[in-house]
Specification:
The chain has a 5-stranded mixed sheet with strand order 1-20-21-22-24, with helices on one face. The protein has 12 helices and 25 strands. By secondary structure, the protein is of the alpha/beta class. It has helices at residues 5-17, 102-116, 138-149, 161-179, 223-227, 271-283, 309-328, 355-363, 369-386, 412-425, 455-458, 464-478, and strands at residues 36-39, 45-52, 71-72, 77-84, 90-95, 99-100, 123-127, 135-136, 183-184, 187-194, 200-201, 205-206, 212-214, 236-244, 247-255, 267-268, 288-293, 299-300, 331-334, 339-345, 391-398, 401-405, 409-410, 430-434, 443-444. 33% of the residues lie in helices and 24% in strands. It binds zinc ion. The site of zinc ion (ZN) has 3 residues, from loops.
């Protein structure tokens, strides 16, 4: 249901900063998609920024159902760029956390936007999705905090709210300071390189009807599952770089794989994707290297990873080599016509379990406490869907190059289809996709995969109509 530009802006303003006005109703079965476009590019600048987001000792990891932080093996970072001179500022940022969800995603984007003098729909905030890391949902934390206040034991907080606020304040400072050091951009470069023996599909073990039997996870010790084919993946690391003459100022990398080699041991690490990024940064200190995880909802390293300590170094090296290959043969375009487009989708929650059931399960003390956290995260998504707070998709376009900024644990089919769609519209369409933006819906399978079950479908909080509107939103951005 498309609607006029004025009312789109009004919807975004209302939905980001408070409940929608009474009387505006949306069909949950036919979520709206509404693209908009603001162009610029005459005097392009880029301002890289970074800040530390390493959680304190004792902080919950992955929403509180694995061991909390005991040791920090390497720091977690938030890294991004502010793009100036393409309409109002645009911010692209990737955080070494498991997820940022619902109102937490909205409020953090709003704070970043304020620091840069832009609007929240021009902030693409993503997580790399490591698991020995925070999972930030203030809404779910409020639900669990009430349970803890009622005296329930053996239950973990999800997020240290005061520490989260410090991270938000750090982001404001980092962005404001970075803008003062912005550097001119004369050209945009793009390239892709094949990553060997890292990504594999998790859903390759199936019966004859296509139903998923066993998941090949991030690490897999079962030789039978490891012997199964790689399955559907996107084998390419893609890079989009910002050049000032011959100087590469910032380089954004995109690759679709769950970034964990092994976890749940209380040891904070940016893991193999973060370590590859840090290695790139050490090789080129003058260029800001940023890594975005693509549509990896059904993609992990399981075929090539037995979870041993050696595997982390191997995966880091192979991903690093793929990224270096993507940077080695970059084409370039000038910055004329650079533009940021957005599309909104209004999320719909799955029908079962319904909200009263979720409340009952959370409050039932005979249920394992760790389940309460996941149920609280699902309840938070239901509450958000009820308020019809939209998920914002984004895309930067310049010449034949597109970035695509998507929510949650989207399946790899979304980015593969996005590339095919872009190529059908222009012969050399190049799309670099980041997922794990607003994490509220958790997994987003394709509509065709819902009947095939498996873990990912069991924790897909959105209705199949959310998957359909995601596809429509992508096409509206790339069309
Ligand atoms: Zn995941």
């Amino acid at each position: 249901m498309p609607f006029a530009a004025g009312s789109r802006r009004e919807l975004l303003r209302q939905s980001l900063f408070g409940p929608l006005a009474a009387g505006i109703t949306w069909s949950l079965q036919t979520p709206a998609v509404c693209p908009k476009d603001e162009t610029g590019g005459g005097n392009l600048h880029v301002a890289p920024f970074s800040f530390d987001v390493t959680p304190p000792i004792g902080h919950p990891c992955c929403g509180g159902w694995i061991k909390p932080v005991e040791v920090v093996d390497d720091s977690l970072e938030a890294k991004g760029i502010v793009i100036l001179g393409a309409g109002k500022p645009i911010i692209l940022c990737a955080v070494d956390w498991t997820g940022v969800l619902n109102s937490t995603h909205v409020s953090w984007r709003s704070a970043m936007a304020e620091a840069a003098g832009t609007t929240p729909d021009r902030v693409a905030l993503h997580c790399v999705h490591q698991h020995n890391a925070p999972f930030a949902c203030l809404d779910a934390e409020a639900i669990i905090a009430k349970e803890i206040a009622k005296g329930r034991d053996k239950i973990s907080h999800i997020l240290d709210v005061d520490w989260f606020k410090k991270c938000v304040n750090q982001s404001r400072d980092a962005i404001a300071k970075a803008i003062g050091r912005a550097q001119p951009v004369t050209q945009i470069g793009w390239g892709e390189g094949k990553v060997e023996r890292v990504a594999s599909n998790r859903r390759v073990s199936r019966d004859k009807s296509g139903k998923v039997l066993a998941m090949r996870g991030s690490a897999c010790k079962d030789p039978k599952l490891r012997e199964l084919p790689e399955g559907l993946i996107d084998p390419f690391a893609r890079t989009i770089a910002f050049f000032n003459g011959e100087k590469k100022v910032a380089s954004c990398h995109f690759y679709a794989v769950h970034p964990m080699s092994f976890y749940a041991d209380g040891r904070v690490t940016s893991d193999f994707a973060g370590l590859a990024r840090k290695a790139l940064q050490a090789r080129e200190p003058e260029c800001a290297h940023i890594y975005f995880t693509g549509c990896a909802g059904n993609i992990a390293a399981g075929k090539y990873n037995d979870g041993s300590k050696a595997s982390r170094a191997d995966l880091t090296q192979r991903l690093l080599e793929g990224i270096i290959a993507s940077e080695s043969i970059m084409e370039r375009t000038d910055t004329k016509g650079i533009a940021w487009n957005t599309a909104q989708i209004v999320p719909s929650a799955r029908l079962q379990p319904a909200m009263p059931t979720l409340w009952g399960l959370i409050e039932n003390r005979t249920n394992p406490a760790t389940n309460a956290n996941r149920l609280a995260l699902e309840l938070a998504f239901h509450q958000r869907a009820q308020k019809q707070i939209p998920i914002v998709l984004g895309s930067l376009k310049v010449g034949p190059v597109r970035t695509l900024h998507l929510p949650a644990e989207s399946f790899v089919e979304y980015q593969l289809n996005a590339t095919k769609f872009a190529q059908s519209k222009q012969n050399d369409g190049f799309v670099a996709t980041a997922a794990y933006g607003d994490g509220g819906p958790w997994y987003i399978p394709t509509p065709a995969e819902f009947p095939n079950g498996g873990y990912e479908v069991s924790v897909a909080f959105g209705a199949p109509s959310l998957a359909e509107s995601l596809s429509r939103g992508i096409e509206s951005l790339l069309g």
